[in-house]
Fold:
Amino acid sequence: MSLMSRFISIFCVLFLSLTSFLIFPNPTLAVGISENHLDSCPASPNCVVSQNGDEKHAIKPIPYHVDRDKAKETLLKVLTVVPRTEVVEQKDNYIHALSKSRIFKFTDDVEFYFPADENVIHVRSASRVGESDLGVNRRRIEQIRLAMQDLQV
Structure:
């Protein structure tokens, strides 16, 4: 096999890998609260959710020990220092932010729901495209959880 043929073969494998894992949009994208729940995750592993998540998608909600308005205010402050993240929607019991990846600028939807009857913030973080996120959504939520804990919320 010539060097050029080998190069073309490697290029094709890499291209197909990237397109199958990164480029195809997630057809089940949904954001917001429905019947007091955040949307569930799609079958792909690039999503975490604290409400009704199966084993591979489940993540714990973020607890708080202050009043809900103070917890929401603190979370909004934390989100201002999360890299490449912008809050795009705020309601009394809900925050929706967009977070972009550093290199390819892929967008993830990051959602926070403050149920009236619990002292927790339910979370959902999901990639809009691709199959794998290499654990980015889970790590993002865990970093936000640690920041909230450090601020003694």
